[in-house]
Structure formats: structure tokens, C-alpha cells
Design a protein that fits this description.
The chain is an alpha+beta fold. The protein contains six helices and 18 strands. The chain folds into two domains: 111 residues, no CATH class; 176 residues, Ribbon (Umud Fragment, subunit A), CATH 2.10.109.10. Helix 2 packs antiparallel against helix 3.
Length: 321
Amino acid sequence: MSSITAVVLAAFVGYGAAWYFGVVEGNFSALLFLATVVTGIYWLAERFYFLPQRRKAVAALEANAVNRQAELAKMGISQVDDNTAEAKSRLIMQPWWLDWTAGLFPVIIIVFLLRSFLFEPFKIPSGSMIPTLLVNDLILVNKFHYGVRLPVINLKVLDNHSPERGDVMVFRYPPKPSLDYIKRVVGIPGDEVAYLNKKLTINGKPLPKTPLPDFFDADSMRYAKQFEETNAERSYRLLNDDERPSFIAGADNFQFRENCRYSTEGVVCKVPEGHYFMMGDNRDNSLDSRYWGFVPEQNIVGKAFFVWMNFGNLKRIGSFD
């Protein structure tokens, strides 16, 4: 078993290394699920076979020691060296290949359950959600807010809340579902979303947009115009760049593209049933539904709600809208 376990562990390490160096496209959810299954099998084998076998060996050793002492006592020998304690310790000790599999199972399954059904951590890789979320913010995502889903396949098995306008949502990027994206829900099924001349309109009603003091981006060392927008009674901040045109350049040929009308002023889209229209708060620096289309309901991962750490700025810790 030790050689088989060495091969299994080497496979996990090899996959992780290949993922790290970009040789393969990794899937952490699948990897964690597989690790849970493999260590779970070892844990069951340890509990119901290997540990009982070691206990039997210890019991046999103890019985042999008692019999030996009895035989020596018949011969008038009362004092003998007793090394059974050390031998029992060696016999009952878990071998390395069980320590690195069955021994890790309780920790792995707790992480798996927490990450799959309760909260999952994410790191913000880009500035598309500035000023709400900054690059390198470490956030928590509520995995059950929009319903309970099976891990890996992301199949919803229990309903909860539906996404609402203004929610900050993590989802699987439609053109490449292995990637997770984070944007704000702008339009829900049935909405007509218009983003023309950098002004957002939902179902013919322009959203209130109040000017705020300019936002200074420490990474780019630039100021950007900042506004407060209100969508469905939820207010949040956004940025606009006067140097960027309103025209949406390079939109993909996505599913339901016929629901969208592009012009030099921007885009107007009718959100199909079971789909959502997403936009980044950094409006002129966000690759979102204006470019690659609608997010289907089955791609939803969870609702982002809390920054739990930013090592470069501890003041970032806290909830956000």
C-alpha cells in the first residue's frame, strides 16, 4: 500500500505543479472533491481494517508477553526485561501513508463542505470592480444565498434567493466556465438594459447618478470621475473615464446576441429568461455583459459580501454594497 499511496500523492503533486506552471488548466473544486474522496477511502480503510489489524497485533503481543512471563515464573525467574511497551507503540503507530491520507481526511472534508456549501474565498485579480473592490482584495462569497448547488457540476438542488439588481455576484465566465468572474448584477430576466453615452437605463427609467469627489487609483496614479448610482434602491459607487468612448468595441458573437442593439452611443439589451446582465463598477475598464453576453442561471457561484483581508491595506476589511 505504501507504494500505491506514493504514486497517488505524486499524482496530486504533479497535477498541482502542472497547474502552477500553466501546463494544464486547473480546477480546484474538482481537485478538492477528488482529494476528499481519496482520503475518505483511506480513512474508512484505516477505521475498519488497518487499525483493527494493528490492535489485534498489539493484543497478540500482550498475550505472548503474559504467556512468556508465566513460563519464566514456572522456571523461578521473576525479573525479566520488558520491552513490550515500545513494541506496542511501534505496532499501533499509523504508517506514513495513512498519516498523509486518512489523517488529513477530517481537515479536507471540513474545507470541502465549507467551501462547497457555505463560504468560498476569492482574490480580486483586476480593477474591473474599482472602487467597490480593489486589486488583491480577498473576499468571501456566500455559496447558499442563491441556492444550494452540488460541487464541481454546479447543479442547483435547493432554491433560495434570486439575484437582485445591485448584487455583487461571482459566476462562471460564460465563454470559459472554468474561470470565475465577479461583476455587479445590472439587469435581471425580462429587463431592458440600456447603456448609452455612459448612462444606465433599466426598462426605460434612467438610474440616478450623483457626482462624487474624484477617485484616486494608487496603482495607475490617476484620478477618475466617481459617481453614486442607485439601482432598485441599492446605491453603490462607480467610475467613468472621459477618455474612453461610449462605443462598445469588439463585442463577441454570444448566445442571444440578437437581443442586443449596438450603436456608437453604446448598447441596448433585452435580458432573456434565466439570464442576467452584468457590469463592472469601473465602467470603462470592465470586460462584462456588454462584450460577452448574458450570464445563465446555472453559471452562478454565489454572492460576494465581505472583504476579509487586503495585505496592502488593512482598512479594506469589512462588508461592501
